[in-house]
Write a structure and sequence with these properties.
With 118 residues, the chain is mainly α. The chain has helices spanning 13-25, 35-46, 51-61, 82-91, 109-112; strands at 33-34, 70-71. Helix 1 packs across helix 2.
Length: 118
């Protein structure tokens, strides 16, 4: 519940979920964002959330957005869905590392990182 002195409206979990999904849906093919980047943008806009909340939203409701474009700060896709995420990233031409085991690839964030213009 928002305090009586706050002029900011309270952000509901549904508002946050929609904001995460809307932002992730805007990530262009071949690019990536980190959980922390998404959280930072939404904290600036909404005043709430963090990387774990972003991951939670994507785990629960991210099937309709390009979830594979969201990686951790080291460029790794979610462990449980790593193979599927890497397939999507490769298909889109996202820059990846080339380790001996292709399932250990990471996004080259210096070349792939996307940030919204607004």
């Amino acid at each position: 519940m928002a305090s009586s002195w706050s002029s900011e409206p309270e952000v509901t979990p549904e508002d946050y979920l929609e904001a995460v999904l809307d932002l992730v849906a805007r990530v262009p093919p071949g690019r990536a964002v980190t959980y922390g980047s998404v959280a930072e943008v939404l904290r600036d806009r909404l005043g709430v959330g963090g990387p774990r909340q972003v991951g939670s939203v994507l785990a629960r409701a991210g099937a309709g957005v390009p979830w594979w474009r969201v990686v951790n700060a080291a460029g790794c896709p979610p462990r449980a869905w790593r193979r599927e995420a890497l397939e999507g990233l490769r298909r889109e031409g996202c820059p990846l590392t080339a380790p001996p085991d292709p399932d250990d690839a990471r996004v080259v964030l210096g070349r792939a990182l996307w940030w919204p213009d607004d």
